[in-house]
Amino acid sequence: MQTDPTQTMDHCTNLLARLMHIRGFPKYVSLARSLRYSSDPVTRLWDVFALGVPLCYLFDLLPEDAGFGKINHSEFDEEQYNTNPDRAMKHAIALFAIQIQGENLADKIPGCEAFTVTDLWDRSSTDGFSRAVTTVSAIVNHLPQDTFITGPLEKLPAHSVPLRNNWKAQETLGTIVRELVETERKYVQDLHILQNYAAVVAQSNLINREIDDICFAYTSELVKFQSKFLVGVNANAALAWEDQRWGLLFLKAEKEFGEVYAPYCANYVNIEDIEWTPEQERNLSSLNQLIHFKGELPAFLIKPIGRAFKYPLLLSSLIKATSSVYYPHYEELRRGLEASKRVSDLLCEAQRRAENEQTVKSLRTRIDDWKGHNLEDFGDLLLDDIFEVVQNGVTREYHVFLFERMLFFCKEVSLQKKKMSILSSRSLYSPRRKSPLLNKGRVFPSSITHIVFNTEVEAISSRRWSRLTVHWKGQDGPESITIRCRNEQLKQWEKQINGLIQPPVKTNESDASLGFDPNPDSTTPPPFAPTPPQDVVHNDVPSEVAGPIPTRKRSSRRFSESYAFAPGPRPPMILCD
Q: Is the overall model pTM greater than 0.90, yes or no?
């Protein structure tokens, strides 16, 4: 059973305030704080309960004349605690849990819920802790009035210089924090909706198990993690700005963010490739009152990726709106931003690898004639995109694949003769390219001498183009080819190719393994250069969600067949229609 993170935080805040008014109880709060400081009321209360002895102390405050016994374990045995503190704390929790499970307690104190030591000790879920909060709240409600003292609530000391009269900075920070909190709550709410939808789909057998596993994989893990993360978000937002620890929140969650989101991002590539049958569409459309199949489901499935890439932007906004003068945790906030960026990089890499695996898998069926080459010998796929390729004044469009040991050029066989703009990007919701490819040529990185990246502006349209010219040692001397597009994507290609370039290799003049293949029908695969280390590159992630996400522009235009190439006796290249 999932608990509402916002309700949990409110209950903890109220209960902690009441406990601070119980005679003798503040010392336990101080003890917990001495072991680990936290401004989060949920964590603070959980730390207090985990000591065990505070629970025993509370139970012993119940009146004996009402039939309540005594545990008499409100202090640690110093020797036992020093020997094994975890065991001492678990022992105290067990003594309290035994009393709660008594036969008559539920009649005397309605609302008490039984829980085990593991329920309270295990922090991977808030369910057990929520039962402990409910039970302790019920006990506090039955305590005699003389156990309470009057006075102001304990307040965390301030550790910063206030913003004084800088109302504009206060307003800006308040707006950013409010956006973070409100969008986080809405996000977790949507995750719960998606989880419930997935459960209904599974129970109703509306789609086969394989597609169900792909479409809703890792949903439960997301709900579990984000519900816990929302507790920290709400807790920080409830404090004065000087006491909010947003950087610490992201630093602590960095590892789990990666563990939960990286598999989801990698799996999203499989979600893209799902081909729904008419029957499946009809079946899922019967649940449109929960989530509309065509209008809402794609947005729900991509929302986690969008949210993950939104966090660095929110933290950057906080950093820009404050300074170390007014905010004591400024450097911590900067480290939190770096942590969120590392998570984003990890997710990009996970999706890049997954997408490249799919691309390589599809190449096996998309290319019929490999002209004697073996795909397994190419190494890992690093990048692929559709570019204009220019050589000897002739421009054509090719799908270019950069492997560790091969720069590979293919022409897509258009199943529908239709021209499309080279500027259009591949929609994340549209099927991946599956049309046949013709092998048009290749360059071995070991033969590349250097590359040149520059930009040019068309005189007529003033449009800016990026150009990457690859120079290599050909059979008859130096050769080159230019890859051109109208975005900055080529900078990634420049970086990767530079990392693959090997020192010049001495060969016989007749060695056809260097340069663009002069004999496309050769059946003898050439020797390959050693595999160099590859750099991490961000591949495309969806942009149709709230918050900018790094995107990779994909071209899909078909050039006119009027670009004819008339080969001579010894063609310098094989890029031809």
A: no
